[in-house]
Amino acid sequence: MTKSRAVDLEPIDRLEGKIKLLVAALDHLRSDQARIVEENQRLRKDVEALRGQLAGVEETGAELGALREERDQVRTRVAEMLAQLDALNL
Q1: Residue 82: inside a domain, yes or no?
Q2: Distances (CA, A) of 2 to 5, 6, 8, 11, 29
Q3: Among 60, 38, 41, 37, which Cα is nearest to 49's?
Q4: pTM above 0.90, yes or no
Q5: Integer-rounded Cα radius of gyration of the chain
Q6: Based on the structure, what is the number of domains in the chain?
Q7: 9-41 pLDDT tens trace
Q8: Is residue 79 domain-resident?
Q9: Is 70 contained in some domain?
Q10: Which domain holds residue 49?
């Protein structure tokens, strides 16, 4: 009778082994999920920081464009004044 009892427990032992593997896999997945959530939060902060930098760069670009336009106007006016001075033949 001992032999039949050992045979009867084999399916339970296999089931126990599979359950242990499943529990280990779940623990691993939970750990991965926690790591991914933390990484996602870090990346969101990075994206927000980059958006802020981009807004600053865009503002600087607009200011630079305005300064270039102003410089061109000043250059044109100076050229006109130099032409007027040349016309006076002083």
Answers
A1: no
A2: 5, 6, 10, 16, 40
A3: 41
A4: no
A5: 38
A6: 1
A7: 888 999 999 999 999 999 999 999 999 999 999
A8: no
A9: no
A10: 1-63
